[in-house]
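explain this:
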Amino acid sequence: MGLGLFIAKTLLERSGADLTFTNGTAPPGALVEVSWPRAAIAVTEADTAAGLGENRPFSG
């Protein structure tokens, strides 16, 4: 599978994604489908109500 594919697959699955691996015929090669259930990525009203707080000035 390769280390890069393993790491990507692990991170995607931890975010709630479903992965499907198949062999393509036209064009030939590997096909990967990644999908997330709406519940895994939906923003709720509670998420938006809290906000992130005030912006602080940048002092560089």
In short: Residues 8-37 form one domain. The first strand starts at residue 18 and ends at 25.
